[in-house]
Specification:
6-stranded parallel sheet; 4-stranded parallel sheet; alpha/beta
Length: about 350
């Protein structure tokens, strides 16, 4: 039976300071070292003693001083995340997944979001995270100029990058985790080809983004394999207004039968395209099929519901944290995660079939 003396109000430790490890030891009737072993999950502690210490912790409301622990162990139990802003669905979803995975492993997360996407700003942000004593950094920034900062930062801690950088220089110190963007584009394009489409336009993402480049390559590869025409409409951003403008530019081509399907580089662009087509009286999927990428929650509620490529962001977050905590070794083979196709109402065979 576990017996712990109940401290009376005002006893056990002074009321003007938080309870300390020594207070826990005194109340539990054990040594300071025993309390430390319990807190660090040391196996060589009897179950009864462990229960006694945990009851004392509960009674006192003791909370560990993580700063003191960091000084003693050279570890802060904190992961730094460098990202590019909350307006981008993919990076935002990945950050949330990493934070949840880190919390489950007993780690805190400190996030720095860039407002300028250049190497200098990124280097400053990385150094800022290092100065905070983080145990490692995850970069959720699939933008080429941001990743260039790794060459200048000369970090001495593990770094994992979530970006589809398929060609990594030997000098790059990071390990990479990403969804196979190129294969996702091939899946999307293959779905449209299988329906009978050959005149498939791609509304591509903005320049400088690894994801946009890989999706453009995957679409182009599949079209060339099918000996189908390559029709690209570049978008200025990832956002719906850019998709809307691209959609307006495509209306005449759809009416003329020169384009029967559109592969948008993400769901936001696809949403803008759907709006442009609706305003012009172009029916989806009767006149033209539309497919996106990401699988936003809203994509299932659009009219028509959007066929898209789903990225498993939770899997990416878990993989990034696992790589940071366990897998950062001499083997720098990227961890590549497969996307999946979600078929909804926005795609159908072309009119001629």
């Amino acid at each position: 039976m576990t017996v712990v003396n109940i401290a009376q109000p005002g006893e056990g430790h002074p009321s003007n300071r938080p309870p300390s490890m020594a207070d826990v030891a005194a109340l539990a009737g054990v040594s300071h070292q025993t309390v430390s072993r319990v807190l660090n999950d040391h196996p060589n502690v009897r179950a009864g003693t462990r229960d006694q210490v945990m009851e004392a912790i509960r009674q006192l409301g003791y909370r560990r001083n993580r700063a003191a622990r960091a000084l003693a162990t050279s570890h802060s139990s904190t992961i730094g995340i460098l990202t590019i802003g909350s307006e981008f669905f993919g990076p935002q979803s990945t950050v949330l997944a990493i934070e949840a995975a880190a919390r489950a492993q007993g780690y805190f997360v400190t996030v720095t979001a860039l407002d300028r996407y250049d190497a200098h700003s990124s280097t400053e942000a990385l150094n800022h995270l290092v100065d905070q004593g983080v145990d490692g950094v995850v970069m959720v920034a699939p933008f080429e100029k941001v990743i260039d900062a790794l060459d200048d930062a000369a970090l001495k801690i593990p770094v994992v990058v979530v970006a589809a950088r398929t060609t990594v220089p030997e000098s790059d110190p990071a390990h990479y985790v990403y969804v196979d963007q190129r294969e996702g584009a091939r899946i999307a394009t293959g779905h449209l080809l299988a329906l009978g489409h050959r005149k498939i336009a791609h509304v591509s993402g903005p320049t400088g983004w690894f994801d946009a480049t890989e999706r453009q390559i995957g679409w182009q590869e599949k079209m060339l394999e099918a000996q189908a025409p390559v029709i690209e409409v570049p978008a200025e951003s990832w956002l719906a207004p850019s998709g809307y403008e691209a959609g307006k530019r495509l209306v005449d081509s759809v009416r003329a039968g020169e384009v029967t399907a559109v592969f948008a580089a993400n769901d936001y662009l696809a949403t803008g395209i759907l709006r442009a087509f609706w305003e012009a009286g172009v029916e989806v999927p009767t006149d033209v099929s539309v497919i996106g990428f990401d699988d936003l929650q809203i994509s299932n509620f659009l009219i028509p519901s959007l066929t898209t490529v789903r990225q498993p962001f939770r899997d990416v977050g878990h993989a990034a944290l696992t790589e940071l905590l366990e897998g950062v070794t001499a083997d720098k083979t990227p961890k590549v995660i497969a996307p999946t196709l979600v078929i909804r109402a926005s795609t159908a065979p072309p009119k001629s079939q």
